[in-house]
Amino acid sequence: MDWTPYDAALFDLDGVLTPTATVHMAAWSEMFNDVLAGMDGQEPYTDADYYAYVDGKPRYDGVRSFLAARGIELPEGDPEDPPEAETVCGLGNRKNDAFNAVLERDGVAAYPGSLALLRALGETTVQLAVVSSSKNAPAVLAAAGIADLFPVVVDGAVASADGLPGKPEPDTFLAAAERLGVTKERAVVLEDAESGVAAGRAGDFGLVVGVDRGAGEQTLRERGADVVVTDLEELLP
After folding, report:
1. Domain 22-106: which topology?
2. Exposed site from 23, 73, 182, 213, fewest CB < 10 Å?
3. The pLDDT value given to residue 102
4. Which of 133, 52, 123 is nearest to 99 (CA)?
5. pLDDT of res. 205
6. Which PANTHER family does the protein's record reference (predicted)?
7. Do residues 113 and 125 make contact, with C-beta atoms less than 8 angstroms apart?
8. Structural domain boundaries of the chain?
9. C-alpha dihedral, 200 to 204 to 209 to 214, nearest 10°
10. Would you list the DSSP string of 180-224?
């Protein structure tokens, strides 16, 4: 790929730089299927539900989206709700506990192709940022040993503190570009989630790259990806 027209690369984290999307998927599945098992007439939660309703969204938004799709109504609750609470926030916190337990036990490593691209871009003038809906982004970056490559990280905690709406709205990506001091027209968004690709397109960035880790090339293109790859190694300068 010719990177000369661009000044910045804005990376999603889970599923783009690290395979933690599989950990998230397992945690969501465990949590939702435990909830659904106690409800009559509900089909099990599947990977298709993850891609359609949860992937790339802030945690509580993912809970709301899936529950709405199933016609399930629960109280909103409060972010301080314990994980056993049958509320939107309680379910989100239950999922987060499951994710952190797996991360602490197994650790995580960056995809080799993603690491190769990061190293190659590090030898250019292209600036790097991570834009993640997860509040666990700093812990994941540290566990993968790549935290020092990113001078800017706009994660779920930053979005909450700054009042930024999550993906599919473009605000977190726009904030990252602004913090790097680059224009959106000269920034590349790299995303594996439908909601993240849609955010890149809504923000009118210079290039939106879809990384197909399971959502499907056609789906990512329909959401607004200009280019779809299966591995970031395909984007080496």
Report:
1. DNA polymerase; domain 1 (1.10.150)
2. 73
3. 79
4. 133
5. 98
6. 6-PHOSPHOGLUCONATE PHOSPHATASE, HEXITOL PHOSPHATASE B
7. no
8. 8-19+108-235, 22-106
9. 40
10. HT--GGGEEEEESSHHHHHHHHHTT-SEEEEE-SSS-HHHHHHHT
- 14: amino acid identity, one letter: D
Q: Please report the pLDDT score of residue 24 as a whole number.
A: 86
CATH topology of domain 8-19+108-235: Rossmann fold (3.40.50)
Residue with token string 């789906």: 219
Which residues are known to be catalytic? Answer: 12, 14
Distance of alpha carbon 196 from alpha carbon 171, whole angstroms: 11
Which positions of the chain have pLDDT values less than 70?
none
| Omega prior to 168 cis, within 30 of 0 | yes
Tens-place pLDDT, residues 62-89: 999 999 999 999 999 999 999 999 999 9
Q: How far apart are CA 130 and CA 39, in angstroms?
A: 38
Q: Report the C-alpha gap between 213 and 200 in whole angstroms.
A: 17
What lies within 8 Å, CB to CB, of 52 at 6+ separation is: 69, 194
